[in-house]
Design goal:
Length: 177
């Protein structure tokens, strides 16, 4: 019997097994089984709670990434985070499904570059901790999501009254005023 057939047979029999890095198959201890079941329970709760939270959509450049160097390409992100961005997103994850959507999102290399940048700048905040969710919970849509609210540095809230064209022509994002 091949190793794969042995593993399939034991799994189908309901055995709780694990495969060691060296390829050895062994029975899990009771503590390992309990830990795995707890991890699965938490993952299911996290997945279920995601669907119930309203979506908060955040723009990337000028909102999360300070964007002080300007555009250098979809996969080039040279600047640090906007002050408070990491802490804000961590807090928001408790109440919202946070989605980051940017003009980079559907450009070659842009999505991966944003994800790498955030993971690098988040440090330990990337991972879930006893204090709460980590930034790894953020979603990365490639099309604008149907968000409850969006935070963008280059937007005007529409209140039912059309702005004057001169107002639009004079618009500057917060970091250019």
């Amino acid at each position: 019997m091949s190793k794969i057939e042995e593993i399939e047979k034991r799994i189908n029999a309901g055995d709780n097994i694990t495969i060691e890095p060296d390829g050895t198959v062994r029975n899990m201890t009771a503590a390992e089984v309990a830990s795995r079941e707890e991890d699965e329970r938490r993952a299911k709760e996290k997945f279920a709670s995601r669907g119930r939270k309203p979506i908060l959509c955040l723009d990337f450049d000028g909102v999360i990434h300070s964007y002080s160097s300007g555009w250098q390409g979809a996969d080039v992100i040279p600047d640090p985070p906007v002050d408070g961005a990491i802490a804000f997103m961590l807090g928001a994850l408790e109440h919202f499904q946070v989605a980051i959507f940017s003009s980079r999102s559907n450009q070659r290399g842009g999505l991966r570059a944003m994800q790498r940048w955030l993971k690098e700048h988040a440090g330990a905040a990337w991972y879930e901790s006893p204090a709460g969710s980590g930034l790894e919970e953020i979603t990365w849509p490639t099309e604008k999501p149907a968000a409850m609210i969006t935070i963008d540095d280059r937007a005007i809230t529409f209140d039912g009254t059309w702005p004057a064209l001169d107002t639009l022509k004079a618009f500057k994002p917060w970091n250019k005023r």
